[in-house]
Amino acid sequence: MRFAIFVALLCMFSLSSRAQNTHRLAIPSYAYPSTKEWKTWESLGSQTVGIMVLNLNNGDDTRLDESVATSVKHTQESGILVLGYIHTGYAQRDPAEVRAKIDAVVANYKVDGIFLDETPTDCGAPARYGGSNGAYYDALTSYIRSKPGKHMTVLNPGTMPLDDCWMKFADILLTFEEATLANYQQHYVDREWLHRYPPERFWHLVYSVGSADQMLQIVSLAQQRGAGWLYVTDDGPDKNPWDDPATYLAAEAQAWTGVAHSASK
Fold first, then answer.
1. Which member of 3, 18, 176, 239 lies 3.0 to 4.6 Å from 258 by CB, making a disulfide possible if both were Cys?
2. CATH of domain 24-171+191-197
3. Rama region for 118: left / alpha / beta (φ>0; ψ in -120 to 50; rest)
């Protein structure tokens, strides 16, 4: 009976996703490219996965690795965007250092944009290197967009900011990153301003979600909350939720996007 209920829910969520046709997975794929983990995420294809994130030594490895370059190119040729990961220390990191990391990952791997992690929530607060937090990220996102090729920018405050200041700089804003279904139910903050923007501008991440049933509840909530990008995983108890695919990855992909898959961990 429990399995029959699961299948029914999966079909319902799949039909809903097809109707909206705006949902894909965006994955912080913090495993080395060419590993089975990276290939598992990639194998879902671009109808399901729109974004993967290349994170080499927390974004600080600036050496060219030809095997990584080959894997990244393969992922991009499949239609999935690959973004370079760079941490910003909540606007406390020297922007010259951040620009140097941008230069390296773009030159080495021809990434399709940059995922700027550790974004503060307060856009107007003073930044360490002068001006406001907003000015700090405005300059960085402008620098990213000066690069050749694609240049998507993602900012990650990990929660919902008070106003839409960050939307002036980010193509995508990551507005939830926490563990467990209970936290997603209780800690998510709605704001009036987010309803003025389409779903493809928002990304939610939820980890340590222990069952497919709980994952499906998150999928339903994320749809209601206007997210266009999502990734849910049962990884996380090992303190690194982004280095191993979810055990229910294929079911999640179908529930969120309406595209059936047989991929497994």
1. 18
2. 3.20.20.80
3. left
